[in-house]
Batch of 2 targets.
Target 1
Amino acid sequence: MKSTDRFALFVFVRARARALALAALLLTLATSGAQAGTAAIASAHPQATRAGEGVLAQGGNAFDAAVAVAAALAVVEPYASGLGGGAFFLLHRAEDGRRVMLDAREVAPVAATPGMYLDAAGEQKGRLSLDGGMAAGIPGVPAALAVLADRYGRLPLSRSMAAAIALAEDGFDVDPRYVVAARFREEALRADQRAAAIFLREGRVPEVGARISQPALARTLRALAEHGRAGFYEGDVARRLVAGVRAAGGIWEERDLAGYQVIEREPARFAYRAATVTTASLPSSGGLVMGQALRILETFELAALPATERDHLVVEAWRRAYQDRARYLGDPGFVCVPRALGSPEYARERAGSIDSQRATSSQALEGLHPALREGGNTTHFSIADAQGNLVAATLSVNLPFGAAVVAGDTGVLLNNEMNDFAIGKDQPNAYRLTGGAANAIAPGKRPLSSMAPTFVDDARGTLVLGTPGGSRILSMIMLGILEYVDRPGVDAERVVSLPRFHHQYLPDRLEYEPGQFSDAWVQALRDKGHTVQEGRRRWGNMQAVFVDAKTGQASAHGDPRGRAGVLF
Ligand code: GLY
């Protein structure tokens, strides 16, 4: 299929979604007689969207559709997520209004140690936390699919995963985003014989339209579909995974897999003006970083300000909230994160340190706050079904193609999520994020994440959204929330396509998407003392669903960057 045909397919998928939604609506009205809404799915790949739609058409709910979409993405977006990776699934169950986050983040193996990636001088040992078996945490996605099916869905895994298994067996066609991802990781993929055989062609990045079949992954998907969690974490597949990881230099043991647990957590909740935001809680930094930044920004009359004045305040709020990410946040099972971080008083104090005319240097902010000493690549999809169930899910293997290693003959591409830990003092990770003791490596610990599947509720309805993008995930979602809440008339379509800028405390620089901001905007922020830098490319691939509170109608909105071949 030509790339233009592929992009046309997104449009087709939208139209098809509406037809399916109508079928689902009629089905619901016929069976319950109740007022019902419509369904919508927004994902990064048309074949994953189609897998979810198929499950809805078979009577599955949004949670079954989430299984289908996640399993299909594991096949057709191997560079972004997969059985070898982790995820956060934010769920809204219509029957009782329950909102919960399934934490399927990877955990460090039992044999992991704080200094495992450092040499005697405290420097990183090559690319051990990025490439190869040592980089991989114990995956959570397969366990999450089983939890979704067993506790929330209506269909067995074998039904919800059928489309993914077929895609792995029959193959999918390389698209422009695959080419960008494979070029980014070409060398690492070439270094692993199995990864190269599956994802490259004679050691080179395949061309658009080349077919990628994954029969070994199909067998592993089938084991999970037939036997549930035990089909992956125990028995034959588990033994082969461990053997494959150890052959690639890793340290997994069978007890790591047997002991893996999805944790059902309370999501983070906070208000931003008239809207309520529900998003990922720790070990995602999403709730605390976005909550603090938006609480700081709520103390200013942003809507009345010119764009550069507003954007200066936005950057200053991000500087402070990302600083606290580095200082205090980590897996809540291992570290005590200061409660004050989430308080309005703390946000007001942080807001008080902002000079509305001058940038604060990030260096000047350094040091632990006296009141807080108690305590340091990816894909997204959004789903609404006709019954009002919602799913926002962000899934990752970290860098494109994760660790670029396939575990033995399982077809499972390993993650390199261990790089999300603070791997040494002053050692930034692949997203240039730094961190402290709270995010140090420990056996069984989950690395701090930026993945933040989010719901925004206000009088208009519910916006379900999220995006890949590492450390930029949080600034992208916050820009979306700010526009959606503060500017009348901004809808979901605008939220996913907004021009983006980013600041994360360190490095101390304000980056913006090329060609999206005027020279006057750049100069005005430079005049306030910001180091302003044009990014090399646009970023993000936000996938949103909007459910209208009055009509129950759901609509899907995909980021134009994804359709244009932007990776993350
Ligand atoms: N691996 C990216 C994140 O979890 O933030």
Target 2
Amino acid sequence: MKTIQVKTESARYAVVCERGALSRLGGIVEKVRGCGEVFLLSSPRVWKFWGRAAARALRLPRERVVLFDDHEIAKRVSTVEGVCRKLTRARADRSALLVAMGGGVVGDVAGFAAACYLRGVRIVHVPTTLVAQVDSAIGGKTGVDLPEGKNLVGAFHQPAIVVADLTTLHTLPARQFRSGLYEVIKYGVIGDAELFRFLEHEMEKLLRLDTRSLEWVIERCARQKARIVSQDERESGLRQILNFGHTIGHALEALTGYKRFLHGEAVGWGMLGATQIAVEMKRLSERDANRFSSLVARCGQLPALPRVSSRALVRAIAGDKKSRHGRVGWVLPRSIGAAEIGVNVPDRLVAKVWRELPARYARTEN
Ligand code: GLY
């Protein structure tokens, strides 16, 4: 069993990365349960594959299972209200322990419900997608989207433990898996050149869900995430580095009504845009930018960019929650394995890169 420790100012907890952990969930959760009852929060599509195993492991009656839609479009305040009302009807009290089993949307919605319900109850995350196992389940960010922007309503609420069972990735649709790979590439670019080289060598194996490659990659990313959030729980500095690709990515998600892109795909485009900005600003070599875009292309085809004017994009970027007085501190790569935060990028350069992005990337793919 691989256990990674997260030590933030407000909490200490373990991230367990283990094949078959789901069948041992009862014993793992028992260690952090306290005196309260356990409630399982998940979505119908995750429940279909893993619900029975989880309920059996937790010895859970059906009344203590709450299911909700986990499409990005459903990551909204009304879904959190629905979850809280179901918890009330199931008589969850302040000692309750919520177990959130699913991908990023399940974790973000359930995590936010846990942060608010009865002014806060405890939560365990059981991430079942690649993006959730390497990123969103670790670090306590929870929240929902507004039509105006991504994750604009939320709270920091650290889990009691994170339990990642790598076998759950085998029921993940290929597109969802690839979407997680873009976030994996992110970790290589921002802080781990060895991981990036590994991805260059092993991408095809990863796409075939090769066990050893996958285990190595997930542990490597989870360790990096744990180290970063342990140093900067509330994103006052270092944690901002995890937002590489998210400035354009979040704008794209909001501009397309959270329907066209999976989160990782929007981040994939966002990283390509940020990388090109870094080249134009002479902060990154063409060679490293080419290595990066070739690796992204090997993950598979990204959904086409929408027809959005550069003005609309710049406006959406200014509305992102990371902006201050309408200005955004960009995360730009300096080399493979190193990035800088808080970079000021002129709007006209963002607009130029946006206009050229589809054609430039199409050349990489061919
Ligand atoms: N997903 C970015 C963060 O957790 O800070």
